[in-house]
Amino acid sequence: MNEAKRAKPVIAVIHGPNLNLLGTREPHLYGRTTLREIDDGLKARGAELGVAVETFQSNHEGAIIDRVQQARGKAAGLLVNAGGLTHTSVSLRDAIAAVKLPTIEVHLSNLYAREEFRHRSFLAPVCLGQIAGLGAIGYRLALDALARLVLEPGAGSARSSQPDSSQVKSRAATASKKGISQK
């Protein structure tokens, strides 16, 4: 009874351009689950895991970068689906690197089974990992992983062994292109 109630760590979920159209936009690629359903599911799962989930979506690159920067000092980790900005935004990549929060990149579709221009992620080298191609369940898997990394000291020890992000090419993209599995 004397224990002070501790605030739950916050996981910030950031959705990029066009994700507000989920459920109706190209359902053969992105599924029929709406963004609201994804967000509601993440908040419920976060409560089960002992983390608070805050969600944000914008179609504007600057607003997304602002939200990433606002997470510094407030959030314990980031879960990011940058949509098309994944393949174009050096500024978003730099913001993620600057806040130094554990970040997992999520994509509903398999980027490497799509157009060539989608095979390169500017974000992957500054993220802990990437989950792509599993539809809406990819968000839940990313949240489960990120919550574990945030709540269990030492669970993310692999992070400290990652090379400097400025020297890393997206290993996932390289392996996929070459048909090599990562170990």
Folded structure, characterized:
The chain has 183 residues and is of the alpha/beta class. It has one domain (10-178): 3-Layer(aba) Sandwich (Rossmann fold). Helix content is 37%, strand content 14%. It contains seven helices and five strands; from the N terminus they run E-H-H-E-H-E-H-E-E-H-H-H. It has helices at 27-30, 35-49, 61-71, 90-99, 137-151, 157-160, 171-178, and strands at residues 10-15, 52-57, 77-81, 103-107, 129-132. A five-stranded parallel β-sheet has the order 2-1-3-4-5, with helices on both faces. Helix 2 packs parallel to helix 5 (137-151) and helix 3 (61-71) runs parallel beside helix 4 (90-99). The longest helix is centred in the N-terminal third of the chain and has 15 residues, at 35-49. The radius of gyration is 16 Å and the shape is globular. The chain starts with 9 loop residues before the first strand and ends in a 5-residue tail after the last helix.
In the CATH scheme, the class would be Alpha Beta
Q: Indicate the overall shape.
A: globular
Helix and strand composition category: alpha/beta
End-to-end Cα distance: 46 Å
What is the H-and-E element order?
Answer: EHHEHEHEEHHH
Radius of gyration: 16 Å
CATH fold call: Rossmann fold
Q: Characterize the biggest β-sheet.
A: 5 strands, parallel
Low-confidence stretches: 1-5, 159-183
- Helical content (DSSP H or I, runs of 4+): 25-40%
CATH H level, superfamily name:
Dehydroquinase, class II
- For the largest beta sheet, what order do the strands appear in spatially? 2-1-3-4-5
